[in-house]
Amino acid sequence: MRIVFAGTPHAAVPSLDALHADHDIVAVLTRPDAPVGRKRILTPSPVKRRAEALGLPVLEADRLRGEVLDRLEELRPDAVAVVAFGAIAGPRALATARLGWFNLHFSLLPQYRGAAPVQRALMDGRAETGLTVFRIDTGMDTGPVLLQRSLPLPRQDAGDVLADFAVTGAGLLREAFALLASDRAQLTPQTGEAGHAQKIDPDEARLDFAHPAAAVLARARGVSPAPGAWTLLDGRRAKVAGLTEAHAGDPRPAPGALAATADGGVVVGSGDGPVRIGRIQPFGKPAREAADFLRGRPDAAFDTDLAAQTGDDHE
């Protein structure tokens, strides 16, 4: 088929490669170069870089209107494949493709509609999620489903999960477009209770170690690597990273307090037990390994909001 591929981040690149192997990619639509880093250097999107390496024509737009729609109408694609493009397609855009626009979404729709499905599922402590290929309509991730696949949700940071799902999702999207090409595609309306997964606000990335360990770890995984977990130390934001389950026999400090472990690690107390912590970056200072930080500040403790604890004994 003649396909336009629309995507922007690294998570979309495996899908571009998968469809390029089977179909005629007549254009790649991505968001314009964006400033990156402290020096705000204009940088092409990962999808743009991959498209140029493959010798594919690139269209850049942050909104689907005006000249980019004129160009899509001229191309007359059979279908448009969308993976994390980052802009809404209105009725005129959707009418540019004979079969429609099809999106790879990283949840089992109608669960977790929106921009951050994997992150929200991790924050909710879910053990399972999945992938959906659906035809886009004018609603927010409401269109009929072409293919779905359930997947376990590993206890990893969101960035690692997204990287794994991007590869698996590329295979599912390739399968979906094979069905479209052979006229064997069947679309099914979404059923079940809908949920929403709006973009993570940086304020939501705060960890309060008065909460139970499972809740602290779930939130840390969902907000890593972006916007990044943080907590309060001496009333100011401190970035934290590398949080994992505690080991048997680890110390059990009070919520927010830090303690060294027998094997050279560091734990921080939570509302019902310790969690391990890898790195700490106090406000205005460089990041340090938690063990190095604790040696310099052996009595340090993160601020907590909740006064009531679970009644566990803390050593």
Q: What would you report as the Rg, rounded to the nearest angstrom?
A: 23 Å
Gross CATH architecture of the largest domain = 3-Layer(aba) Sandwich
Order of helices and strands: EHEEEHEHEHEHEEHHEEEEEEEEH
Strand elements, count: 17
CATH class of the largest domain equals Alpha Beta
Mean pLDDT: 95
CATH topology of the largest domain: Rossmann fold
Task: Give a written overview of the molecule.
The protein has 315 residues and is an alpha+beta fold. It has helices at 13-20, 46-53, 67-75, 91-94, 117-123, 158-181, 213-222, 290-296; strands at 2-7, 24-30, 34-36, 41-43, 58-60, 79-83, 100-105, 128-135, 145-152, 230-233, 236-241, 244-245, 258-260, 266-270, 273-276, 279-281, 288-289. The strands form 4 sheets. Strands 5-2-1-6-7-8-9 form a 7-stranded mixed β-sheet, sandwiched between helices. Helix 1 runs parallel beside helix 6 (158-181) and helix 5 runs antiparallel to helix 7 (213-222). It is elongated, with a radius of gyration of 23 Å. The termini are far apart.
Architecture blueprint of SSEs:
Elements: E1 2-7, H1 13-20, E2 24-30, E3 34-36, E4 41-43, H2 46-53, E5 58-60, H3 67-75, E6 79-83, H4 91-94, E7 100-105, H5 117-123, E8 128-135, E9 145-152, H6 158-181, H7 213-222, E10 230-233, E11 236-241, E12 244-245, E13 258-260, E14 266-270, E15 273-276, E16 279-281, E17 288-289, H8 290-296
Parallel strand pairs: 1-2, 1-6, 2-5, 6-7
Antiparallel strand pairs: 3-4, 7-8, 8-9, 10-11, 11-16, 12-15, 13-14, 14-15, 16-17
Helix pairs in contact: 1-6, 5-7
